[in-house]
Structure to design on (844 residues):
């Protein structure tokens, strides 16, 4: 009874999702602030726009990455029936990571072509992505320990999902390692990791247990 | 059964729409950041404000265009019963296009009056609008091939809607062509295309089949 | 039947409200971007912060004004059962007006203390507020002509509400007139007009008809 | 009956919450605009990023603080059945306070290390946090006087919640006092106050009355 009262005091998953959707939608749209209108003399616009290619690359990459994170976020919260303090603060950390992406994307795009500085910038970019993916692991681990928070039909899910989510922080750590050698290669590694999570979940795995 | 499980893992149309509404609402409001308070000596404010007319024109045009896109976005997603990976990523591309509009609008407004540079700027503006309209075509085409994703009473719709949506990318390509000759005329062509889509759908067409 | 089909193609009031809430929430929060961290030498921060008082005044005034507009927006759309093209585009104009407020507020705050320029700036501020209030009149007038769009129990409302809404554009025109003589007095007049609309509706009036 | 009509004219708690969620989500995400990409010569990026530590500290602190405010905001509005003018305008004041946080956070972070100026900056930061916490007190006090606005099972709550909310403005006043002596210590005090409100409510207290 105490537990129920305590849970009743926390926001419902629906509200948590609505708030998270808001933060994610804003972070994904703020990425555009890194696309700057060139302030050059007449006749030089075409060249100035072309030289901004790392900004377009960063915008597109981070936009798609945040989009994929959003899909995976919903896959997770759609299965939760009740939220308690654990997921609540893990989710806040996840949103904090996503909210830093307009900054770290801009940093990586601005410095990508500079030698030592480029490596620093891409390592920071990997770190912010790694923070988000680590909170996914934390969330699935928490749910694996407390399956009663999930909808009844999904109580096997956290085991599989956690194993899959673990790929994230490990891969971003590898990408950061690569970035210390070559900024562009490290950046490319981040794109590959995001692509891995495009399909939020492999149906085969969920179908292992008989239905 | 596998298909159902797979679909159940994807966000519902309601969530997709809520997230899209968020991104579109933010993009449409960020347009205001291109209206700058003039930093001129005293006595010169009136003149400085008048000279900013391309910024007001760009703001108004893009605001109304994004508003029209929002209406058409709802017309499409209101008819979808289930979402799978196709619409999900087409929609992400559509949002990416809309999110670039504060940048491309600002670019077109800032450079509209400059000769060669103006043409480049308006071509870029046409391109971002064309990207959005092309994803509308992709979405309706996908639905035309998979009518089972639609509400039962709307399964004829995609054929008609796709044909109508095709006007978008073609017309924006024409506008870009015009812009290579004259930036202001190309910009005006973009306004005309948006006006064409004001009515999200012609009722006559839907009523052709007996009810 | 044709009318129903046509209406069904337009977003529901619920969606229109959700989208409007998004735009209004963003515009009201973007006002903070006009509060700038002073970039002065050490020891001068206190003075620099005090000299920014018109920015704080503008922020507070516009925040409360937009808040009041939001309340009145809901009072209107809560009573609408179906939306057609008229309210849809009137609402888009209303949102356009609200979206300009971070710009016009910043303009008025920055130039309030400058003689001729201050008058220009406050007239522009009155104009953006007047645009919003004029679309409220347009919306209520439209509903007065088409009471079938309203919930059955509220079909007397538009007559009363329109009369009350008319105060808005007239009062903002007067405020603009005052601003041509004195910028601060014109600005103060805008505050008074907003205060008039704090109570979204006078209960007495709605109770005139027997219940 | 007059009261009911009057209430019916005001937004429902659901809408008030949705709008508040929007403003809070935007304010929390706008904090990232204070993280600036260093514009330094090549080779100096690492150092420049490290020297920005107060900006990261401010971002993290205010992000978590706003997150905690959001949780407490929901705990309050989840228990309200009907909203009238009192909570409506108290809530607007609360949102105004939250909307100023990107500015006051940036101010505190930028000036934290400067002697006298740092103290001014942190006092302003305490003030904006104190404003938010004071409106929580005002809201709970209002509900304590009008328990009929609450869901039937929660009518004892406002007494306890108000007592607990009172800690906020008092503690922020103390933090401001400390900040007049030492800016960093005052800032640390703000962190402690936020931590106090992490658990939105102590279950023990609600369970005092027999169930």
């Amino acid at each position: 009874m105490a537990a129920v009262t305590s849970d009743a005091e926390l926001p419902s998953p629906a509200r948590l999702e609505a708030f998270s959707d808001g933060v994610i939608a804003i972070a994904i749209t703020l990425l555009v602030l890194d696309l700057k209108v060139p302030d050059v003399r007449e006749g030089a616009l075409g060249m100035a726009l072309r030289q901004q290619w790392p900004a377009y690359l960063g915008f597109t990459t981070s936009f798609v990455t945040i989009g994929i994170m959003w899909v995976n976020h919903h896959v997770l919260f759609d299965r939760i029936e009740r939220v308690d303090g654990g997921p609540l603060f893990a989710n806040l950390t996840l949103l904090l990571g996503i909210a830093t992406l307009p900054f770290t994307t801009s940093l990586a795009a601005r410095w990508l072509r500079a030698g030592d500085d480029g490596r620093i910038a891409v390592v920071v970019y990997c770190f912010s992505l790694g923070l988000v993916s680590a909170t996914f692991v934390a969330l699935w681990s928490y749910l694996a320990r407390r399956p009663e928070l999930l909808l009844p039909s999904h109580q096997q899910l956290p085991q599989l999902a956690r194993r899959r989510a673990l790929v994230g922080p490990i891969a971003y750590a590898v990408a950061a390692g690569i970035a210390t050698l070559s900024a562009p290669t490290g950046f490319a590694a981040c794109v590959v990791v995001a692509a891995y999570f495009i399909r939020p979940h492999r149906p085969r795995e969920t179908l292992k247990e008989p239905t």
User: Anything to note?
Assistant: The two ends of chain C are 33 Å apart (CA to CA). Confidence is low (pLDDT under 50) at residues 1-8, 203-211 of chain C. The first helix of chain C runs from residue 2 to 8.
